[in-house]
Amino acid sequence: MHVEVDQPKCVASGQCVLLAPDVFDQDDDGIVELLDADPSPEHHDDVRESAAVCPAAAIRLAPR
Ligand code: SF4
């Protein structure tokens, strides 16, 4: 799995950080920061859920 985030779309809701704190963080303005673009398999379910619940559709996933 490869992860990309679209920071201009992010509305700083923090959902992704709550669900997958090893993969996503937020900067001082609450905008998403990607910690791990190629997360290990144990994180995949949490990352998929983050992408599904992101209110801005700012998380894109690609298979690897
Ligand atoms: S869930 Fe989406 S909108 Fe919320 S912080 Fe993460 S990327 Fe941004």
Automatic annotation (TrEMBL):
Q: Could you tell me which Gene3D superfamilies the record lists for this protein?
A: 3.30.70.20
Pfam families named in the record? Fer4_13
Q: Which SUPFAM superfamilies match?
A: 4Fe-4S ferredoxins
Q: Please indicate which superkingdom the organism of origin belongs to.
A: Bacteria
Matching InterPro entries: 3Fe4S_ferredoxin, 4Fe4S_Fe-S-bd, Fe-S_cluster_ET
Q: Which residue range or ranges hold the 4Fe-4S ferredoxin-type domain?
A: 1-29
GO MF terms listed in the record are: 3 iron, 4 sulfur cluster binding; electron transfer activity; iron ion binding
Keywords for the protein's UniProt record, in alphabetical order: 3Fe-4S, Electron transport, Iron, Iron-sulfur, Metal-binding, Transport
Q: Which cofactor does it need?
A: [3Fe-4S] cluster
State the function annotated in the UniProt record.
Ferredoxins are iron-sulfur proteins that transfer electrons in a wide variety of metabolic reactions.
What protein name applies here? Answer: Ferredoxin
Protein's organism: Streptomyces evansiae
Q: What is the lineage of its organism?
A: Bacteria, Bacillati, Actinomycetota, Actinomycetes, Kitasatosporales
